Amino acid sequence: MTEPPTLWQRIARSTAGDDYATTYAERFRAMAARGEDIHGEATFVTRLVDPPARVLDAGCGTGRIAVRLQQLGYDAVGVDVDEAMLDVARADSPGLDWRLADLATFDLGERFDVVLMAGNIVPLLEPGTLAEVCGRLAAHTTYRGHVVCGFGLDPAHLPRDCPVTPLAEFESAMAAAGLVETGRFGTWDSGPFTDAGGYVVTVHTRSQAGQ
Predict the structure, then answer these.
(1) Torsion angle in degrees (nearest 10) through CA of 126, 106, 3, 152
(2) What are the pLDDT digits (tens) for 154-167?
(3) What element of type H or E holds 189?
(4) Is it true that the peptide bond before 4 is cis, omega within 30 degrees of 0?
């Protein structure tokens, strides 16, 4: 039986059609060709840990961030629930470790120094799964390792028709998973966070060794 489309897939198809995965990848290729910096998330990771630290790109999509991290010397793994996005990632970078899994239930049997969840993954999660996802992120993070999340906080910083996840709701779920906030920024280049900025990048640290 075919699985029903996820919230992300429904939004992506409504804005980019059935070939949304290729369209998404090509948009970033075009930005890079124009000389724009498309590696802010990977650069942010370099300020937290040095290579060859292990990094999990959770919700990796077509693999842009994981590929860059590997180029910088990190041991990067990408996981995503969307087979179409992973097909693009595998075609572009067949040598990297790509995993198909749902962030609310995944269990790779491994832990990472940094777990990264960028690209508005938080508000695009399936309704009612935020707590489970935060728990899974914590379970894949080493003791005193970091979980980094970046996402929009208002419609201007989100895809069309994407619901807003209140920051307080996100923080509550992270705390319940044993993750303590150790940094909050407004941009991937570590600009200051403001309530009116519409975007947040958070760093949480796993505080419990025995989880």
Answers:
(1) 30
(2) 999 999 999 999 99
(3) none
(4) no
Which residues are 199's β-sheet partners? Answer: 152
What's the order of all strands across the beta sheet hosting 54-58? 97-100, 75-80, 54-58, 112-117, 141-152, 199-206, 179-185
Predicted TM-score (pTM) of this structure = 0.95
Q: Which domains does the chain have, with CATH numbers?
A: 7-206 (3.40.50.150)
Distance CA 77, CA 55 (A): 6
Predicted local distance difference test score (pLDDT) of residue 208: 75
Closest CA to 165 of 155, 176, 175: 155
For the chain, residues with pLDDT lower than 50 are 1
B/e letters for 104-135, b = 16+ CB within 10 Å, e = fewer, are bebeeeebbbbbbbbbbbbbbbeeebbebbbb
Tokens standing for residue 15: 């804005």
What is the per-residue DSSP string for 135-180? Answer: HHHHHTEEEEEEEEEEEESSGGGS-TTPPP--HHHHHHHHHHTTEE
Q: How far apart are CA 68 and CA 166, in angstroms?
A: 30
Using CA atoms, how far residue 26 sits from 21, 72, 91, 148, in Å, is 9, 22, 13, 25
Q: Between the CA of residue 180 and those of 58, 105, 148, 149, what are the distances in Å?
A: 19, 22, 11, 13
The token pair that represents 22 in the structure block: 């290729």
